[in-house]
Amino acid sequence: MTSIEARVLQPYKYGFETTIASDVVRAGLNEDIIRLISQKKGEPAFLLEWRLKAYRHWLTMGEPKWANITYGPIDYQAIHYYAAPKQEKGPESLGDVDPKLLDTFEKLGIPLAEQKRLTGVAVDAVFDSVSVATTFREELSKYGIIFCSFSDAVREHPALVERWLGTVVPYTDNFFATLNSAVFTDGSFCYVPKGVRCPLELSTYFRINAKSTGQFERTLIVADEGSYVSYLEGCSAPMRDEHQLHAAVVELIALDEATIKYSTIQNWYPGDEQGRGGIYNFVTKRGKCAGKNSKISWTQVETGSAITWKYPGCILQGDNSIGEFYSVAVTNNRQQADTGTKMIHIGKNTRSTIVSKGISAGHGQNTYRGLVKILKGAEGARNYSQCDSMLIGDQCGAHTFPYIDVRNSTAIMEHEASTSKIGEDQIFYCKQRGLSAEDAVSMIVNGFCKEVFKELPMEFAVEAQNLLGISLEGSVG
Amino acid sequence: MKEHFLAEYRAFVGNGGGSARAPAWLKPLRARAIARFAEVGFPTTHQEAWRFTSVQSIAETPFSLIPPDTPLPTLDDLAPLLVGGRATPRAVFVNGRFAPDLSSAQGLPDGVRLGGLAAALAAEPALVEAHLGKYARFDAHGFTALATAFLADGAFVSVPAKTIIEAPLQLLFVATAVAGHPMWHPRNLIVLGREARATVVETYAGLGDAASLTNTVTELVLGDGARGEHYRVQRESPNAYHVATTYSHQGRDSALESCAVVLGAGLSRHDLTAVLGGTGGYLILNGLQVLGGRQHVDHHTCIDHAQPHCESHEVFNGIFDAEARGVFNGRIIVRPGAQRTDSKQTNNNLLLSRDARADSQPQLEIYADDVKCTHGSTVGPLDPTALYYLRSRGLGAEAARALLTYGFGTEILARVGVPDVRTQLDRIVRERLHMDSWQQAT
């Protein structure tokens, strides 16, 4: 393998910017800004109260410093906490949505016009701080499924929101989640009623567009008894020299016998080769298997962002509940990722599986940090963790920090980790069989990630493979 | 209570700091160390490295240095603790002080030193000063600062270049039945010169059930091409507290095999740092813990691959019964440029009772690409199918459990190279697991 730097990286494909008139609140963070956001969204009193409680708590907290990442100070007063494309009033139908917005999502490969859409996926499109369109809402409502933007949910189903908001990630949880609780603007809400198997894949596409803003969305998914839902999340942002903050919160709740499958393809702008610009992706995601025999499965493919800091976790409270975490994280150039999962075993016979694959190239630093905690009452709990790292290039780093805490002697916990590089003998073998070096690496990398990709819904598995190819392009010669 | 330790220090310095012949540079070092302790105090569970181990009980006990005139045990008292009988070359320390009458350096080749550090500092300061304090940092945490502040005596082993010693050298630290809350801070330095070869057995044992605090620092230096074996056995009384720091530094093409066995102390903490400071180094870092009652053990190991082409293997097995608790934190660092590193780490924990607990934190930090690094960690009870198999072969439930548990321990003991050491460790572990009682019964 020859030098990494010798080859030019393929530019970030989604780095364009949409010129659209935006309604941006002034930069800064204080109680007035929070009141203004709440007022703009026409929220009920309980939510404003909750936001203010979170803000007051946030003021007492310090930014977490334990992660294996380095970045300059963030000026929280320089961020615009609300930015929305200007519209006369909320669009009644897709026809009322600004065509520029539709074009933007079209260019990102997310056509919102339903007739064009592959059947089988319903999309909620979030642009800066607001949701611009949600497809298939009618279709889904026939099954009693509520799938809409968070703002709509607050207006139309306040009781449901009030009941579940903050039950998995309380507003006191951590610095970034608390900040999100104070200023969150939009996101998706989904409720699947008892015994319903959601017939479509639900998905949300997040787009940051406006300058100097941060995106703070909040997603809440509740799967009632015996229901099933598969949910996908995608994201991208324009190329800019400045760093933008994305601090989201995702809460999942699975009641008795319910299953939630949550997949993420994260492709925020990663910054350039020198590490200028890019998104700080500081996200809190947690699911609660509240009912017996429930299951929550996280699958993530993380290729973007200058810095990723996220630990999607499962609280396995119900007996026999199952938590899964499948992850591929790629860091290239100056990207840094500190990611992993938390599995908290509380109920009897709870099981969890962790499969994490990290790929580092260029000057990328990739850290797996995971917690497996088996509490005293978790009789017969079982965990299997596997974290593999692959290194491409001699300037990158791969780190593994698992935390294992077992308090029940009937529990069985296994953890394995390995770090290696693509062997020159492997490349040689492939080349000798007629493959180019690039194809050989792509094949080996895809094989390395196969266990995770097979968990993704089909269309996204293809996208993920392509994405991985793009992210690593130029790192092997 | 921090004030108590500061007062102890003032008294210690006022009395001449253990030895009137202490070199001049020691005074400012002690002063810096106690200043550091005054600043940081004892670690708390809010610190990441001490998250699972609370040392509050140590911080709240008025431990004090004891006068030098405590009665010495006899050689007969020590016999069961000696590896390979009374002929073994040994340095014996009673309540932290070197006991020349119980020690023996007979039959060792010329130039080999085996004795007390204080005496060596007075007689051959150049030999000691070349290494002492060069490796273990005293500011790591409150305990190392305290150990440095009270630095007075300990073991000193020096093996000159190209010298080969077959018999194991034993360092025996015994605590006698002293009333109150005695503490001692043995500071040990073991130096193997270029291409030298030796085995060192470091044993900490209690002859009574004193509620003592042992706070020890051991530095182990291997020159280029040296081969060392280092066995450390801690079997203090269940009332005792044991805090230890072991720091090893290896030169080019050197090999170190080490094994740390913990059976004693109510609360013990051992920080092991192994630096592979030259190319082609080889390291084995093993450990076995067999605990019961309310014992607590914490191991923090760090293998630092600072140079390319080094190999390290680490296996730590823990057996925890009753309400015992084990903590393991194993870090492997591969520095930039340390290519062709081959590193393997395993931590297995066996929980024999409902209330036993194990926390395991393996960590890999890798900054080079051409490396092979793996770690694995398990926690669980005895395998029910294996138990069933043994029962189906006619073993009683107790015997089957004991046999499997012993087997889990021998994974580590079987790797001990020196037969005398292996036999002794094997006997201690069998006693601990009550192996002999059921063997006689069946």
Radius of gyration of chain A (CA) equals 22 Å
What distance lies between the first and last C-alpha atoms of chain B, to the nearest angstrom?
A: 53 Å
Give the largest interface pair and sizes.
Answer: A-B, 32 and 35 residues
Mean residue pLDDT of chain B:
90
Q: What's the arrangement of strands in the largest beta sheet of chain A?
A: 4-3-7-9-12-14-17-20-22-24
Average per-residue pLDDT of chain A, rounded, comes to: 84
Structural class of chain B: alpha/beta
Total helical elements of chain A: 10
For the sheet with most strands of chain B, the description reads:
10 strands, mixed
Give the helix level of chain B as a range of percent.
10-25%
Percent of residues in β-strands of chain A:
25-35%
Largest pleated sheet of chain A: 10 strands, mixed
Describe the structure.
The complex is a heterodimer of chains A (477) and B (442). Chain A is 22% helix and 35% strand. Chain A is α/β, with parallel strands linked by helices and 477 residues long. In chain A, helix 2 packs antiparallel against helix 7 and helix 5 crosses helix 6. Chain B is an alpha/beta fold. Chain B folds into two domains: 277 residues, no CATH class; 60 residues, no CATH class. In chain B, 23% of the residues lie in helices and 36% in strands. Chain B contains eleven helices and 20 strands. The relative contact order of chain B is 0.09. Chains A and B meet through strand 22, strand 23 and strand 24 of A and strand 19 and strand 20 of B.
